[in-house]
Every structure is written in structure tokens, then in C-alpha cells.
Amino acid sequence: MTAPRATVRPARRTDLPEVAAVYGHHALHGVATFDEAPRPLAEWERKYDDLVARGLPFLVTEEAGRVTGFAHAGPYRPKPAYRYTVEDSVYLAPDATGRGLGAALLGALLDAC
Question: Among the CATH numbers 3.30.470.20, 3.40.630.30, 3.40.630.100, 3.40.50.620, which is that of 7-112?
Fold first, then answer.
């Protein structure tokens, strides 16, 4: 059986519950987030709205109608000298690793910046 083909596309607000679930897994079971608990959906909605308003990319991977990962670029620091500098974040669902999805997300994110 062939694995479903993943699509990288711009995130939609309707993707945010799945984005929050992917991130929440890493907050609870990893060290990359520096969070100790999942972020509430309202926080993801604020973040999404802010990034979209700034014209910064927020992308997801989708497989068979399911969000399996996400990436976004966000402001690096508030100081004026950093105004053209962004920080990237890339997270995958635990069952979506090892198939090149992270690389695909990061490549698409760089292209979108």
C-alpha cells in the first residue's frame, strides 16, 4: 500500500485545531517548544491572525484531508534592526516523520519568505 501523498499549502484558520494538536504533542513529549503545556486554540488564532496580517507565511502539510505538520515564519525580535529577520518553526505529527515532510515544509517556507 502506498502512503498518501502530502501537499504543502497555506494554512487556513480551520486548520488551527490540528496545528494546535501537533504542537501540543511536542510541548508534552519533546524539548523543542520550550513550552511545558499545549497552547490554547485562542492563542493559535491570535498567532495566525498576526502572521497573516504581517504577510508572513504559515504553511501546513496535508495528507488524506489531515494536517500532518506545519511551519511558519515569525518576527525574530522587536528591535528595529531585526525588522527583516524572521525565525522559522517546523513541527510534524509523530506519525509523519522520516518521509521528507519537514524538509518540504522548510523549503516551501523559505520560498515564501
Answer: 3.40.630.30
With contact defined as beta carbons under 8 Å apart, do 67 and 18 qualify? yes
Which tens digit of pLDDT belongs to each residue from 3-49? Answer: 558 899 999 999 999 999 999 999 999 988 899 899 999 999 999 99
Residue 83 cell numbers, joined: 525588522
Report how far apart, in Å, the C-alpha atoms of 4 and of each of 64, 66, 89, 99 are. 6, 10, 24, 11
In angstroms, the CA 26 to CA 76 distance is: 21
The SS3 assignment for 61 reads: strand
Closest CA to 11 of 86, 94, 68, 85: 68
